Amino acid sequence: MKRELKHAREIEKAFTELKATQVQLIHSEKMASFGELTAGIAHEIQNPLNFVNNFSEVSYELIEEMNDDIHTGKFEEAKAIAEDLRQNLKKITLHGKRAEAIVKGMLQHSRTSTGAREAVDINKLAEEYLRLAYHGLRAKDKSFNATMKTEFDGHIGKVELVPQDMGRVILNLITNAFYAVNEKKKSFLNPVSPGRPEGGTVMNEKKYEPTVSVSTKKEKDRISISVKDNGNGIPKKVLNKIFQPFFTTKPSGEGTGLGLSLSYDILKAHGGTLEVQTQEGKGTTFIINIPK
Amino acid sequence: MKILVVDDEHDVKLLFEQRFRKEIRSGETQFAFAFSGMEALSYLNGNDNGAILILSDINMPGMSGLELLERIKQKYSKPPPFVMMITAYGDDENFKAAKNLGADDFLTKPLDFKLLKDKLKILKDV
To answer: Is the ipTM of this complex over 0.85?
Structure first.
């Protein structure tokens, strides 16, 4: 009896520890993807801030000019300047809001998910993470470049979901897609790379255009978000492992192996699914399905 | 003097038109805008565009500013247009790459319009 009780306690202790480790791991994955975002965010905020500064500076000059026009009785010209000023103020607001949205997105991403569902504009969410992921990668690797394509269904409307969680899924998929196209591009440049397809030449490298497309679609009973890349695809022998925790094809230290596994869990919690279509050498498409 | 400005941010057009409104009104400077590397190339391929200075951002999706620079310098050998590249602050890597590809001058972001105007003045006098 005593021994059994001791045994049960040990199991309970191990279970508690396991739970704590899991929480810790989820946190590290989140921080890893957050790190990916920081550089992108800095770049993304810089542009709207430059516009805010520039449009306010130029407006200051315009007011001086308008005053001169008023003093010299050139009222028509003063009126025209007033119109320019109005336009500039609009631009200042627009770019200020743009910066605000980026900061908000960042805070949302780092905040512990409340698990509460909100009505979310899926197209906006996808667009935001596409840009952030792109600039994040660019900041880490200056030579990285890819064409981004979006095809958003304007009828999609707002969808009830947990924005931080779904944002993380989208970010994971997009980051993976960029990684895939970048690896393919690099394999053309580096002849000893195992990913280099047969007959890959400098000519082919010129022709290869790394492309990541994000599209959304409203179906009868669900909405879908697709993230498509024209990278090297996923080899058949690992395809059934990609959603397993800790499975990664990245060099050690670069990936936690939790991205897709967490994404899968998040979608399950939303009653949705995560599908993958891949063709070796051609590319991969991940499709998020969420019931409406 | 005709300047082709290449940047993926559309509001750059409005900004330049305001920052240079006196120069544009007097006819001293004319501007054309392209919002991607591809657009810039097709503009340059058009007949008699007459742009003698190209001011290009580097960080653009699709064709980067570096690739655009490379293509311009390869294609227009006699006399190639003056290309000024806009680099992000502290981005030595792209600065060096652009220099190797034959960039004629540089500006850093955020753009100092006074400095740009000074540079243009010198260019005009040459």
So the answer is: yes
The tens digit of pLDDT for each residue in B63-85 reads: 889 999 999 988 876 677 899 99
Q: What element of type H or E holds A23?
A: helix A2-71
The set of residues, in sequence order, having a beta carbon less than 8 Å from that of A246 and lying 6+ positions away, is A256, A257, A258, A261
* Residue B83 located in a structural domain: yes
- Which domains, ranges and CATH numbers included, belong to chain A? 2-103 (no CATH), 116-291 (3.30.565.10)
Q: Does B90 touch chain A (CB under 8 A)?
A: no
The structure tokens listed for A125 are 């969410």
Tell me the CA distances in angstroms from B23 to A223, B17, B18, B30, one per residue in order: 52, 9, 10, 8
Q: Determine what percent of chain A is predicted with pLDDT higher than 90.
A: 41
Domains of chain B: total: 1
Q: Smallest Cβ distance to B18: which of A43, A84, A147?
A: A84
pTM of the model: 0.64
Q: Please tell me the distance from the alpha carbon of residue A30 to that of residue A36, in angstroms, as a whole number.
A: 10
Within 32-71 of B, beta carbons closer than 8 Å to A belong to: 59, 61-62, 64, 67
Which residue in this structure is represented by tokens 């605000």? A100
